[in-house]
């Protein structure tokens, strides 16, 4: 199972890096999102406690997403990732930002319309 998760992440990272970037003017790219969220993969597929490195990545992404473009890019990349990682628990994905002290105004899901979301707020 760990091999499948790692291979899925490698495939996801390849897709994100080689696909057209959403952020033309912003600092956040899909590669930034994948790098930040990779420590969360085990939690998202197997459950258990949220690793501190996962929350560190989420908070790092939160701090990097300072513009509307950045926020929408992060949303789109998470939306793509949610649909590409086999065995991902979408409920765990949706609750993860809150567990790490970050509130985002949308549900992490393959069907999220990221064009509607502009703000992130910190829960702490």
From TrEMBL:
Designated name of the protein: Non-specific lipid-transfer protein
GO terms for MF: lipid binding
GO biological process: lipid transport
Chain's role: Plant non-specific lipid-transfer proteins transfer phospholipids as well as galactolipids across membranes. May play a role in wax or cutin deposition in the cell walls of expanding epidermal cells and certain secretory tissues.
Alphabetic keyword roster: Lipid-binding, Signal, Transport
Protein family: Belongs to the plant LTP family.
Signal peptide: 1-19
CDD domains reported for this sequence: nsLTP1 (cd01960)
Domain Bifunctional inhibitor/plant lipid transfer protein/seed storage helical stretches: 30-114
Pfam families linked: Tryp_alpha_amyl
Organism: Ambrosia artemisiifolia (Common ragweed)
Top-rank lineage group of the source organism: Eukaryota
InterPro entries per the UniProt record, alphabetical: Bifun_inhib/LTP/seed_sf, Bifunc_inhib/LTP/seed_store, Plant_nsLTP
């Amino acid at each position: 199972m760990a091999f499948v998760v790692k291979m899925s992440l490698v495939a996801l990272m390849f897709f994100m890096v080689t696909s057209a970037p959403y952020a033309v003017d912003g600092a956040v790219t899909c590669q930034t999102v994948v790098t930040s969220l990779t420590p969360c993969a085990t939690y998202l597929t197997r459950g258990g406690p949220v690793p501190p490195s996962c929350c560190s990545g989420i908070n790092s992404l939160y701090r990097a997403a300072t513009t509307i473009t950045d926020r929408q890019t992060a949303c789109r990349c998470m939306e793509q990732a949610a649909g590409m990682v086999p065995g991902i628990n979408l409920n765990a994905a949706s609750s993860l930002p809150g567990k790490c002290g970050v509130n985002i105004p949308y549900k992490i899901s393959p069907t999220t319309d990221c064009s509607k979301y502009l703000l992130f707020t910190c829960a702490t």
